[in-house]
From TrEMBL:
Residues 7-252 form the Carbohydrate kinase FGGY N-terminal domain. One of its GO terms (molecular function) is ATP binding. GO terms for biological process: glycerol catabolic process. It comes from the Bacteria. Signal peptide: none annotated. Keywords: ATP-binding, Kinase, Nucleotide-binding, Transferase. Transmembrane segments: none annotated. This is ATP:glycerol 3-phosphotransferase. Pfam families: FGGY_C, FGGY_N. Belongs to the FGGY kinase family. GO terms for cellular component: cytosol. PROSITE patterns: FGGY_KINASES_2. Residues 262-452 form the Carbohydrate kinase FGGY C-terminal domain.
Length: 501
């Protein structure tokens, strides 16, 4: 009896974990495996990860998932990845030039300030949709070339490869035979022209990146190559989707339906809304390519926040909570905020490596204000959780300036969304339903659905039966009115961080 190849395994390579999720033809999770990833901070504002360890962890979880379901049942692999993180490697050996520069890394802040002084920010924003900030990959790729002898000359000869994490993983999974990235990741580099969908020659000159060092760009849904020469992974499995993790989550929630705005709560947060075109005059937000589904480009309006879950982790460390076992820590994070009526006027602005959208202040640093003698651990933890909701509300407020923007529900995913108190506070603050996915692996699901579209050669509408069920937190409109005052006070606290500059 023949065996049907109907399982797609999605690799979700994030900042703190590499996860592999096997999904069947109904979109159901069969098995999942996870491997933690470490982060290094060798200097203030520098955040990096070992590119070699990223690959090793990814291969390990993929191999486990393939073994668990049976290689003969796997039809394709899909990849969702942490965005903006940049890496370079030598084409012949595959050895990294340096550690991967994390999306959180602000080591290129001075370079970015130089672009602003040269009055290039408006041009860069018009072409790429992205404000000048060290978050994005272009300045990181420039730094990587500067970090090695003759880096620019070697890149011009095609002897150095530069890319985002999707291209790095694909290169290693295919024994160097495939050097591609997808449109969503390319749109986060500040090197892509949003209108043409190609690397932009003027941006390459501004950032001094040779075209020969960059991957070719392909639709997020489609064939990228075949596995080859990877320990524990059979040769010949097609890689049928690659997409940035936040984009994958938006696709996994509602396939890009208008009004369904997505917020991913992780180490940082991405708030993304589908829009109709690449044109956007809102300086505080990024316009990006959400994905290319194999038929057409879909655009997204986005605000990126560097520290949300990371801010809670920092506060847990600082108050001694992180010393608890994980289950006890999770319990405390769920119960402590509700154990006090408010923060007693405390606000925590987690600008630990600068502020992202809608403020974009690279040199801002965090603060805790409003401290008084009555403040205890519960108030500080609540302040850290509230900070997540205020930052997301700040981005949503900026999005309302866009003529294409509508908000019928905030679709949420990521580890912190398991905190019911946090989700209800977010719904009450925004005054709209917050809809949480029943499955935490939403980025993996979104990537798998893009792969499914290509494997089965179906339309987007055909994928609707695969969408997950959501749990809805409905807003208390009376509380919504009261929380507007606290939100204004939060914004005053943010202004204090800006006055420090």
């Amino acid at each position: 009896m023949s065996i049907t190849k109907n399982i797609i395994i999605a690799l979700d390579e994030g900042t703190t974990n590499a996860k592999a999720v096997a999904l069947n033809e109904a979109g159901e999770v069969l098995v999942k495996f996870s491997q933690p990833l470490s982060i290094q901070t060798p200097r203030e504002g520098w955040v990096e990860q070992s590119g070699t360890l990223l690959v090793e962890a990814s291969v390990q979880v993929l191999a486990k998932a393939i073994e668990a379901v049976g290689a003969d049942k796997v039809s394709a692999l899909a990849i969702s990845n942490q965005r903006e993180t940049a890496i370079g490697w030598y084409r012949n050996s595959g050895a990294p030039l340096h550690a991967a520069l994390s999306w959180q890394c602000s080591r290129t802040a001075d370079f970015c300030e130089g672009l602003r002084r040269d009055n290039l920010e408006s041009k860069i924003k018009t072409v790429t949709g992205l404000p000048v900030a060290p978050l994005f990959s272009g300045s990181k790729l420039r730094w990587l070339l500067d970090s090695v002898p003759n880096g620019f000359a070697l890149a011009e000869k095609g002897e150095i490869c530069l890319g985002t994490i999707d291209s790095w993983l694909l290169w290693n999974l295919t024994a160097g035979e495939s050097f591609y990235c997808d449109y969503s990741n390319a749109s986060r580099t500040q090197l892509l022209n949003l209108v043409t969908g190609n690397w932009d020659e003027e941006m390459l000159k501004i950032f001094q990146i040779p075209r020969k060092a960059l991957p070719d760009i392909k639709p997020s849904s489609g064939l990228f190559g075949y596995t080859k020469g990877v320990n524990g992974i059979p040769d010949g499995i097609p890689v049928m989707a690659m997409v940035g993790d936040s984009h994958a989550a938006l696709f996994g929630h509602a396939l890009g339906e208008a009004g369904c705005v997505k917020a991913t709560y992780g180490t940082g947060s991405s708030v993304m809304a589908p829009v109709n075109s690449a044109q956007c005059n809102i300086q505080a937000l990024a316009t990006t390519i959400a994905w290319h589904n194999g038929e057409n480009l879909v655009y997204g309006l986005e605000g990126n926040i560097p520290h949300t879950g990371d801010a809670v982790a920092w506060m847990a460390d600082s108050t001694g909570l992180s010393e608890l076992p994980q289950d006890e820590l999770n319990h405390e994070l769920n119960t402590l905020p509700a154990s006090v009526e408010n923060t007693l006027g405390v606000y925590f602005v987690p600008a630990l490596t600068g502020l992202g959208a809608p403020w974009w202040a690279d040199n801002a640093r965090g603060l805790i204000c409003g401290l008084n003698r009555g403040v205890k651990r519960a108030h500080l933890i609540r302040a850290a959780l509230e900070a997540i909701t205020y930052q997301i509300a700040d981005v949503v407020a900026a999005m309302r300036q866009h003529p294409d923007f509508t908000l019928t529900a905030l679709m949420v995913d990521g580890g912190p969304t398991k905190n019911d108190w946090l989700m209800q506070y977010q719904a009450d603050l925004l005054g709209c339903p917050v809809m949480r996915s029943d499955i935490p692996e939403l980025s993996a699901l979104g990537a798998a659905l893009l792969a499914r579209k290509a494997v089965d050669n179906v339309t987007g509408k055909d994928l609707k039966p695969y969408l997950p069920v959501h749990y809805t937190f409905r807003p208390n409109m009376e509380r919504h009115g009261r929380l507007q005052k606290r939100w204004r006070e939060w914004q005053q606290a943010v202004e204090r961080t800006l006055y420090q500059l």
